[in-house]
Each structure stands twice: as C-alpha cells, then as structure tokens.
From TrEMBL:
All residue ranges annotated as the Glycosyl transferase family 28 C-terminal domain in the record: 229-350
UniProt-listed GO biological process terms: glycolipid biosynthetic process
Signal sequence, start to end: none
Species this chain originates from: Paenibacillus kyungheensis
Sequence similarity: Belongs to the glycosyltransferase 28 family.
Keyword Glycosyltransferase: yes
SUPFAM superfamilies: UDP-Glycosyltransferase/glycogen phosphorylase
This protein's name: Glycosyltransferase
Keywords: Glycosyltransferase, Transferase
Pfam family membership, one: Glyco_tran_28_C
Amino acid sequence: MPHNSSSILIVYASYGHGHYQAAKSLQASLLERGVPHVTLLDVMAESHPWINKISQFIYMQSFTTIPHLYGWVYYNTRKMKATSLFGKALHSLGIRSLQAMLEQEQPDLVIHTFPQLVLPTMKKRWQLTMPLVNILTDYDLHGRWLHPHIDHYYVPSTDMKQDMLAQGVPPERISVSGIPLRADFDRNLFTAQHPVTDVPDRKQLRIQAGLIPEHKTVLLLAGAYGVLKNVREVCDQLAERTDTQVIVICGKNESLLQELASHYSEHPAFTIIGFTDRMSEWMMMSDCVITKPGGVTVAECIHCELPLFLLKPVPGQELANALYLQSYQAAEVCDSSSALAERLMTALDQPEILQHMQTQLRTLQTPQAASYIADDLIERYLSQAHAAQLRSVSLKPNLQTTIN
C-alpha cells in the first residue's frame, strides 16, 4: 500500500478554530507528500447538527456569561476514562455519520484533531483494522483524548508526554510533535533557533506594513471573542506612549473593526485590521501579544517566540494553557486590566523582560509539526514496509455489523 494510493480521514470539530486549523494544516502537508485522498469530517456537525449548534453556543458563552460553569465541567471530567459510562456515552455521538463516511471513503488511516472518539469506542464491534491517531491541540491533558484503542498520539510538549506516561500510555505510542500550524508560519520563520535567510527580518516587515521600524510593537488579537473590550484601558495607556505602536486584528468581527477604526482613526500609532491571512507576518514583526490562549494561538506564539500577555483566561483548557506558559515564565497571566497594563508597560520599558520571555519560549519549540506528523504517519502506517507487514490483513473496516 504505497502512500500515493492511500486514503486518510481527519475528524475535527468546529468548536473554536484550532481543531479545524490543525486538520487543514495536516491535510495540506499530506497532500503535498502525494497522499491523494485526505478528507475532513466535522463529525458533530454532520451527525447531530442541532446538538452541534447548541454546543457551539455554549462554547461561545463560556467566554462571556458562563466561564466558571464551563470550567467546572472541564475540571470535573479531566480525569474521565473512556471505559466509564460517561466516556462511552460521550464517544458514541456520531456513530452513524462515521459509519457512512467509512463506507464511502474506506480510509487506510483515521486522525482525530478533536477528542470525539467514536471509532476507538467501536473498533472491536466493527472489527476495524486501520490505525487510529490522535493529535492533541492544547497544552493540558484531558481524559477525553485517551483511549486504549488509539494507536498513536502526537502531543505538543514533552511535559504532556510525561503526563501520558504517568497514566499508562506506552512510550512507543507517543511522539512530541507540537501542534500543526499553517504553512506560512514555517515559511516566515526567522527565529534564533531556526534562522531563515530568505525572509524579511522584523524591521523589514514593519516597513512593509507602514510601521515605524524602531518602535516597540504590541500585537492585540481581538477576534470574535471580545478580548479587546476588557483591555481598552491598556490600549489607552499604549496610546500615550511615544515609542510604541499597536496592531489590532479583529478577525471577522466587523462591528468591532468599525468601532475601533472610528475610535482610533486619528491615532497614528494604531493599525486596525480585520481578517488577515498574514498572521505569521504580524506576529513576526511584533515584540509581544495580548490574546486569548487557545492551543493553536499558543503554538503560533511559541513558534514565533512572541511573549504573551493574557487577561482572565477562561477556566478550562485556555486557563491551563496560560498557566503552563506562565510556569515557564513565557507569559504574564493577569486578573485585571490594570494589572495587565502595569506588567506590559514594565516589560516595554525593560527590554530584558521580553528577552527572557523569548528565551523561555524557545525552550518550548518543537519541529515543524504538520511536516513532522505527515512524514511520520507515512513512514509509520502508509509505507511499503508497513504494507508488507500487513499484506495478509485488510486495512479496510468491516462495517457489516448493524449499529443499534
């Protein structure tokens, strides 16, 4: 079974953007390497659209009205077991959609970038023989990701590998890969650890963006989750500095874009942007970032050695991501706008603080995750050598079992 005749299914979910982005990045890397069929499946949206919409609504509300409820659920299920009654019920959602997709695609490999582990749960009943892989997209280990029928895990850090080993996952089933990022993050990387000579440096990028190359540059990722509404005090203080410029990226939040464009239209130090496909460049030209600590955003900042300033992270995986970075002195986690403003101003006035944070971020860097994972998957599961080992065993699923 050469990899250029293989079919791969990547299962993701649309709660936030990180799971989908990781899936798309890996899909692109696999296609570049000659894998002809790489299909993405939003399992909850396909199988239970109403449950999916309700879940998305609750997820969005977790950033505003019910953060502590979301955190309570997260922490009380963090040690859940796949074999528990709750685990079996949770991982049974989406069975029929996956059955239909497997019958249609007949994949040789299934990858999860979201822990909706229907296939591992049904592996014995369906007599599945294709490998099942998990790619973890946060820096905190939640029990939803662990299942005895997962063949391999790709994790973002050596710390998570140690956590998984402590929970009994065999070491040969774990690879420290990082989180898959868009290809432009690899193309534009010019950090100290991975110097690249054919991309612009920080000052060149600032000049190209119409910024003052010598000024300190703060990146603010506002986006759809209302990060900015809690840091207006910080923006006002930044506006008073004569040596600092601010890049605000609003994503697809058009109302926020119009509001900020109106509020800061007369201030030359503010650059207000809507949706952008140049995130890697904006990060590369910045000295630090104010953002929410989603797993992919954290991975991007680690990749770019970009110190993070975080305001009241939402309890759950985002707070866990924030505390993980803080434990390495790579991020400042603040419980109020005034505290964030104080720490940010101090860091801007004392460059050695940001330099230390950059050094700490460098210790967390991993290989280029999408490329590493794609190469490893091909060698591990889709190579001629692996096919020879399994020549007497069909990698196609047996789906004749009736699902009750």
